[in-house]
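Module 6 notes. Inverse folding takes a fixed backbone as the condition and produces residue identities as the prediction. Think of it as a translation problem where the source language is geometry and the target language is the twenty amino acids. Below is one complete input and output pair. Work through it position by position during the lab.
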């Protein structure tokens, strides 16, 4: 029988095989995989923004009515004056020419001039964006904290009375239209019903106070719209957090943690909750974009001077440049929020970037 000679071992101080260490190679591969993942998401976001740009131009031209006629309604004006206004706004040009001009201007950051305000669209958006961010970010922080906290408690004590009550309330509020809930809040807490007095203003953002009184005045006006946004949006965060934590509760590593003598709250907070929050983190970013884009009805109901109210005013004319600019802003907010979620999730869970 043929014998295979053993391979002599290399001396301890001898030369080592060339090549990068395994750890560095693995790290480099993960980095390259993540960069490919990020490049794909960025390219997808760019294509989506281009589609929104095209859609925002043609969609609102399907609205019946002439913007010039709507703006001059009730005023004595001649046909020559109407034609002059159409030439001023570029509405006398063919649609394809208007589209090319629109795309060229957008590439330079110019979304045109508002018909009704006679001001650059970006200036009007800049004036209204701060009230919207104040409203939406406040609501976002509150409903995210409530959703994660109550979702965690419901999952850890599932099938208890508290779990059934939290889940039932979340499902009901999540299915209620925001404008209906806002109108109900105005009727009950602004106008007052029966023994419940009217405690809050029905709309607006301020009443003209100064200094510290101005801050308190704005906060007073924020209560009902923030309450409406929180009531509608916290349910989804609660349900997702609860579902994710329930999936983790039967895992073997939790049994091992309990066997080591860890208390129940330590098992939950140190082991189960960090893993369960991975899908919730994606939802948080998506909800942030959705809240900013979906604030139109709430701001309109409460006459909040933000982007939602501005969009409603522009749509009633229709003020085409302002409507197009706001539509693009809302859609871009959603797209960027989804892109951030896609970019951050692989950092939290490396398995996603390898798929």
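Target side of the pair, the amino acids:
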């Amino acid at each position: 029988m043929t014998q295979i000679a053993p391979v002599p071992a290399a001396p301890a101080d001898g030369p080592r095989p060339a090549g990068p260490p395994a750890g560095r190679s693995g790290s480099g591969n993960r980095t390259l995989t993540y960069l490919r993942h990020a490049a794909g998401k960025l390219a997808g976001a760019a294509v989506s923004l281009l589609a929104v740009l095209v859609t925002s131009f043609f969609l609102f031209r399907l609205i019946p009515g002439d913007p010039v006629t709507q703006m001059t309604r009730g005023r004595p004006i001649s046909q020559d004056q109407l034609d002059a206004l159409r030439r001023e706004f570029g509405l006398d040009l063919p649609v394809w020419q208007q589209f090319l001009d629109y795309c060229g201007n957008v590439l330079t950051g110019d979304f045109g001039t508002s018909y009704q305000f006679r001001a650059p669209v970006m200036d009007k958006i800049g004036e209204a964006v701060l009230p919207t961010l104040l409203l939406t970010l406040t609501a976002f922080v509150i409903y995210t904290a409530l959703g994660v906290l109550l979702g965690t408690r419901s999952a850890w004590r599932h099938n208890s009375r508290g779990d059934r009550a939290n889940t039932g309330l979340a499902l009901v509020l999540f299915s209620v239209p925001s404008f209906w809930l806002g109108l109900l809040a105005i009727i009950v807490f602004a106008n007052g019903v029966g023994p419940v007095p009217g405690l809050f203003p029905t709309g607006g953002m301020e009443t003209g106070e100064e200094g510290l009184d101005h801050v308190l005045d704005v906060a007073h006006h924020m209560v009902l719209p923030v309450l409406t946004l929180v009531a509608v949006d916290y349910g989804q965060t609660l349900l997702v957090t609860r579902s994710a934590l329930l999936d983790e509760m039967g895992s073997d590593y939790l049994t091992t943690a309990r066997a080591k003598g860890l208390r129940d709250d330590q098992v939950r907070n140190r082991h189960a909750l960090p893993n369960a929050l991975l899908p919730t983190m994606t939802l948080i970013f998506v909800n942030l974009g959705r809240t900013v884009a979906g604030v139109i009805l709430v701001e309109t109901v409460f006459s909040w001077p933000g982007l939602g109210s501005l969009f409603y005013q522009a749509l009633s004319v229709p003020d085409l440049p302002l409507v197009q600019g706001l539509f693009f802003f809302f859609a871009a907010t959603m797209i960027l929020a989804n892109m951030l979620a896609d970019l951050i999730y692989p950092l939290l869970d490396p398995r996603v970037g390898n798929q």
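Reference fact for the lab report: Residues 4-20 have pLDDT under 50 and may be disordered.
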